[in-house]
Amino acid sequence: MAGMIQNRDKFLNQIASRLERPRISSSVERPTWKFQPQYEVLKDATQDELLEVLMEQCKKIHTNIYVTDKKDLATTLNKVVSGYGGGPIVTWKDERFSQWGLDPLLNKEWLAQKIEVYEWDHLKGKENIAKAEKANIGITISEVTLAESGTVVLYSDENKGRTVSFLPATYIALIPKSTLVPRITQAAQKMREIHKKTGHVASCINFITGPSNSADIELNLVVGVHGPVKASYIVINDL
Amino acid sequence: MKVTLFATCIVDMFQSNVGKATVELLERLGCEIDFPESQVCCGQPSYNSGYVKETKEAMKRMINTFIDAEYIVSPSGSCITMFHEYQHIFKGDPVWEPKAKRLAEKSFELTQFIVDVLKIEDVGARFEGSVTYHTSCHMTRLLGVKKAPMILLSNVKGLKFTELPGKEQCCGFGGTFAVKMAQISEQMVDEKVRHVEETGAEYLIGADVACLMNIGGRIDRVGKPIKVMHIAEVLNSR
Amino acid sequence: MSMKISTDQFKERVDKGIHDDFMRGAVAGAQDGMGVKRRVATEELGNWEEWRSHGEEIRQHVLENLDYYLEQLSENVAKRGGNVFFAQTKEEANEYIRGVVKKKEAKKIVKSKSMVTEEISLNAMLEQEGCEVIETDLGEYILQIDDNDPPSHIVVPALHKNKEQIREVFTEKLGYTKTSKPEELAWHARQMLRKEYLSADIGITGCNFAVAETGSFSLVTNEGNADLVTALPKTQITVMGMERLVPTFEEMEVLVSLLTRSAVGQKLTSYITVLTGPKEALDVDGPEEFHLVIVDNGRSKILGGEFQSVLQCIRCAACINVCPVYRHVGGHSYGSIYSGPIGAVLSPLLGGYDEFKELPYASTLCGACTEVCPVKIPLHNLLHKHREVIVEKEGKAPISEKLLMKAFGLGAASPLMYKLGSKMAPAAMNPFTVGEKITKGPGPLKAWTDIRDFPAPNKERFRDWFKNREKGGK
């Protein structure tokens, strides 16, 4: 259902009158920008070079990064999870976990290790939030990965709860190497393309760059404020 | 080369030694100096205080004074910056805007003139002593002259240079700011003096008489054994 | 809190600031530290000037077409089920939000950092309505529990407080029992705030940049508090200054990049969140209801005039972090939630010259602010413009100064007057001269000589020397 718009005309008329012209009634085209420096950053970098940039950047954002192949993904993930002290774990509901051969780990191995795993299920409503809030680890997948800043980009939907990456104490992002792009510029272009093609934008798009932090007390950096205290990225080389 | 000197009111009234050094230096570098008597002040004190109408008369006077000059050179980055500002202040004025533009085109700060126009990087000076250098805000940020004084100083024989910590920070002069906001200005100039002290230099050099008057005045007041000199005086030493 | 944060006179505020040793150390440390980080982050791009120019052209284009983009934004928000309210005044904004609060019977409200909600005194209204309002940005939270101490920096609001003071406040107000280590203090705040996010009825945010083409808006934080504020409560209200928008995601990303590098020297902050409408039907987290309140509150008066460029501001505080005046007086001296150079330009425009007439003079016009502004606002020129307006349009300059400047104008415009004046100077100054110095000057010179020596006028003016030299041949 469309929302309400109130008080608009008076407001916009005032703006137009201050600008000494009538209200704009036809569509405004963006000008041809004189400067476009954003496309120059890491312009001709290969995926391998982007990966190097990402790994270097991770040092600055308090984030561990692991590079693995699809066949070793389960082993690597298991190692990172035990490094964080195990469960409870909450994950998105996402077919890719299964496609990447993680079913045995998620459904059996961790069960055997007494690690509780919860998969987001929108039918269960608020229980999801309670699970995420109690979880030690949240696991999601990066749709676009920004080498320059060390950022993973997540699109929310009913199976991809927003809070999986915020409420748990630690956070793990799985990153197919093919999602690597130079910087936020390319992510923004993609978002725009998707919107143009489908007429839709995910209700929440998160750009996450390492764990939560604050320098609000005497400018001392404290890692882990409202969101995760620690973060790890696992890059999957052959995806 | 014919050079018309814009001495500035501070030099004229309070720092004639800087004017003398400028004349001698430029003559030594082969310039013929001319000093039009009708020059007064560039108008910054009243302009910066917001008195634009009052200042315009002074500006017109200065434009007329220098109208026939080939090159205008001044030992003050800030005052030359003000000359460059005239064209913006007279924007839209059919008579004075073009005149102000021409004034700006031929106006140079002393070190800028030596390096960029005369194309001289070594003036053959000798100066024994350890120095640090105050980069004035208007000269560096607004006029954009950063390298010229450094190039010239680096070629002065005997001179030992130490960079000033926090050199990009204003000294707290700011024209009428120094008296209008005296309390804040004091804190700023104090920090500047502390930084000068930290370098251990015997001399503080600058290319702007006003900043030097401010920092020097504070150095004298608190009794620090640091001597203050204008860059023209250093470049004129042999 | 409103825009005005103190009833003290400017001089008293400055005096307090100058004598607050901790604050001054903190500010100097912050300027030096953040200044270096900003410089590294901007210089490493290699073409920062092009970035600034691009930022400027985007902001200028938006301001020139502001009515169009706001209309587009509101259509697209509504299409996604969000409600949009255009508030010309702060009263209108508060009235609308009050209506939402009443309808929702809200008791508890969590907020993420927003300058515009401070500007419109939103918290005071909400508290009057009997709501518990909780600021969740760590710095804002500290200030709030300390009886609403005002912010002193637009990015690091509690910069003026040291960790011992924070520990004391936590102990007194929150029953805190641990040390003053920032980690422990922050952890305590985390635990306190977790409960609040989970039980709040409404989440209120500001807006870094709205995106007209999609009806989205972005929030930029390092703590992640804005994400919890927008993910957990059932109702979300976002308040934005009317100029804070861009055409598409492509411009949003440029401005976000300019913001994070200029503000904190980061390539991107930890969390940049782009939200569009309320949650979708099957989503579990995210608000069921979304309200966007677009605030004018004096901004449109700035449009179309000589101060328009100030609306390009993206609130990065780079100008604050280089300002040599802010460095010594701190944020509270400005008496406004907007401090530093941007505050000195903006506060008189939004809050009037009567309240903020001193601020434009609290600058040496050194241009450091203009040099770092990522969207090329000519801040020091705007400060100068204010002075011009105060003198010529508002007529608010003191009479003594007017007379002095008139005299100066006459002297500077007339070589004859100048010559007479400058010739008489040594004699006039004689009673005050000791050696080559004046240490106790008369009149306006007193303020100078209270602090520093003033040179005595030359016995022989430069022009006399030059003339004599010419006469005598070379």
Q: What's the gist of this structure?
A:
Chain B has 238 residues and is an alpha/beta fold. Chain B contains 13 helices and 8 strands. The mean pLDDT of chain B is 95.
- Gap between N and C termini of chain B: 23 Å
Q: Structural class given helices, strands, pairing of chain C?
A: alpha/beta
Into how many domains do the coordinates of chain B divide?
Answer: 2
Uncertain ranges of chain C: none
Report the order of strands and helices of chain B: EHHEHHEHHEHEHHEHHEHEH
CATH fold-level name of the largest domain in chain B? Rossmann fold
Taking strands numbered 1, 2, ... along the chain, how are they ordered across the largest sheet of chain B? 2-1-3-4
Residues in helix, % of chain C: 40-55%
Biggest interface, chains and residues, is: A-C, 89 and 113 residues
Strand content of chain C: 5-15%
Number of strands of chain C: 13
Description:
The complex is a heterotrimer of chains A (239), B (238) and C (474). Chain A has helices spanning 8-18, 47-60, 73-83, 95-99, 103-112, 127-134, 184-198; strands spanning 5-6, 63-68, 89-91, 117-119, 137-141, 144-146, 151-155, 170-176, 180-181, 204-208, 213-214, 222-223, 230-236. Chain A has 239 residues and is α/β, with parallel strands linked by helices. Chain A has a single domain (45-236), classed as NagB/RpiA/CoA transferase-like (Rossmann fold, 3-Layer(aba) Sandwich), CATH 3.40.50.10420. In chain A, strands 2-13-8-5-3-4 form a 6-stranded parallel beta sheet. Chain A has a 4-stranded mixed beta sheet with strand order 9-6-7-10. Chain A is globular and about 70 Å long. Chain A starts with a strand and ends with a strand. Chain B is of the alpha/beta class and 238 residues long. The relative contact order of chain B is 0.15. The two termini of chain B are 23 Å apart. Chain B has 13 helices and 8 strands. Chain B has 2 domains: 2-116, Rossmann fold (3-Layer(aba) Sandwich), CATH 3.40.50; 122-235, Rossmann fold, CATH 3.40.50.11810. Chain C is of the alpha/beta class and 474 residues long. Chain C folds into 2 domains: 10-300, Rossmann fold (3-Layer(aba) Sandwich), CATH 3.40.50; 399-471, no CATH class. Chain C is built from 23 helices and 13 strands. In chain C, the strands form 3 sheets. A 6-stranded parallel beta sheet of chain C has the order 1-10-7-4-2-3, with helices on both faces. In chain C, strands 8-5-6-9 form a 4-stranded mixed beta sheet, sandwiched between helices. A 3-stranded antiparallel beta sheet of chain C has the order 11-12-13. In chain C, helix 20 (399-413) packs across helix 21 (415-429). Chain C is elongated and about 95 Å long. The termini of chain C are far apart. Classes of the chains: A alpha/beta (239), B alpha/beta (238), C alpha/beta (474). At the A-C interface, strand 1, helix 1, helix 6, helix 7 and strand 10 of A face helix 2, helix 3, helix 4, strand 1 and helix 8 of C. Strand 1 of chain A pairs parallel with strand 1 (83-87) of chain C, so a sheet runs across the interface.
